[in-house]
Amino acid sequence: MPSLAPILAIESSCDETAVAVLRSPGIILSSLIASQAEEHARFGGVVPEVASRNHLLAVDPLARRALEEAGVSPAELGAIVATSGPGLAPALLVGASYAKGFALGLGIPYLALNHLEGHLLSPFLGSEEIPDHLALLVSGGHTQLTRVRCAGDYTVLGRTLDDAAGEAFDKTAKLLGLPYPGGIVIDRLAEQGNPDRHEFPKALMEKGNLDFSFSGLKTSVRYFLEKNPSLAKEPGDLADLCASIRKAIVGVLLEKTVRAMELSELYEVAVSGGVAANSALRRGLQDLCTSKGWKLHLPAPELATDNAAMIAFAALHHLLAGEQSSLNVEISPQWQVGNR
Ligand code: KG4
Ligand code: ZN
Predict the structure, then answer these.
(1) pLDDT tier at 231, thresholds 50, 70, 90
(2) In terms of domains, do 19 and 139 share one?
(3) Residue 339 lies in a domain
(4) 139 in contact with ligand 1, CB cutoff 6 A
């Protein structure tokens, strides 16, 4: 990969304001995150207007600090990139507008990047080659299986028809009375529990189906708790419930990954997105790849959840191909990645 002046990336699609400075082929000079999770926890989920206001307060000081930590002056930057979708419109607007203003002021290229592309390539940050592989993207807003032939060539093989895997964790955690974001809490409690104590439904398991559906699981947990309210109270019972819920979600993810790998005749698999931090999923994928002889690519934990280094890395591939976006380009809250 030829070299390029350092780039500044801004990520503000949800409740994290993130800024990174990266030099090709993937050297992170700085990567900072200002999380608002605690503020949204009061509401049990992300409130778009609250997120927007917090991005507005955080983005400029964070960008200045990121440049300072990277030892890069604005005049040395080669381009500025921002997540332009998918995500919450009022949140995306802040990062994208800030980045455009910055690029306009410096007279350097601006690039609007797809957040999902950032996640997809995150397991390869720092590598010069992206192999032909299957990508399991599992985050709070998205769950999809994509064939990635190389950077820029994405074919979606399956995706969720309703809730994302992270959303399934977060919504069931809420039903259990656990704090937002609940994925990590369920994961931690599940480590002490018995995953075989309760059986929760797995949807769309018929042969050849690569799509996902997690809303039935959430409903089934709700009915279960209405019938057995005491089982979410005692720590041992709660741990068993968390382990059984995690087993249902992770079980579907693993099974569909195997199907997609076999159908596509691929030998390398990558996982990305916040749920890639899940311990049962990581263990399951590791065991699977050992038994099948597949190569597993996992992002570093700090690159699995939302961050701007992954946005900068994915942007590099576009910038090196000579692409840039017009300053008139609008944010795309529903922007998908790949064909189907
Ligand atoms: O990628 P991400 O930071 O944001 C989105 O783009 O959505 O993912 C956040 C999601 C949340 O749903 C969170 O609960 C989930 O990732 N998550 C986990 C774990 N850590 C984060 N889910 C299960 N187990 C974890 N250890
Ligand atoms: Zn994300």
Answers:
(1) confident
(2) no
(3) no
(4) yes
Q: Does one domain contain both 79 and 167?
A: no
Residue 157 sits in the same domain as residue 277: yes
Cβ–ligand 1 distance for 26 under 6 Å, the answer no
pLDDT tens for residues 79-126?
999 999 999 999 999 999 999 999 999 999 999 999 999 999 999 998
Note the ligand closest to the C-alpha atom of 167: 1
| pTM of the model as a whole | 0.93
Q: Residue 113: exposed, middle, or buried by beta-carbon count in 10 A (0-12, 13-18, 19+)?
A: buried
Q: How far apart are CA 9 and CA 19, in angstroms?
A: 6
User: Contact at 8 Å (CB) between 252 and 216?
Assistant: no
The label of the residue with tokens 């000081």 reads 61
Atom of ligand 1 nearest to the CA of 305: 3
- Domain at 98, CATH number: 3.30.420.40
- Does some domain include residue 326? no
Ligand 1: does its nearest atom lie under 6 Å from the Cβ of 11?
Answer: no
Which ligand has the minimum distance to the alpha carbon of residue 276? 1
Residue numbers of the domain that contains 76? 7-123+303-320
Q: What spacing in Å lies between the alpha carbon of 166 and ligand 1's midpoint?
A: 5
Taking only the tens place, the pLDDT of each residue in 37-84 is: 777 777 877 888 888 999 999 999 999 999 999 999 999 999 999 999
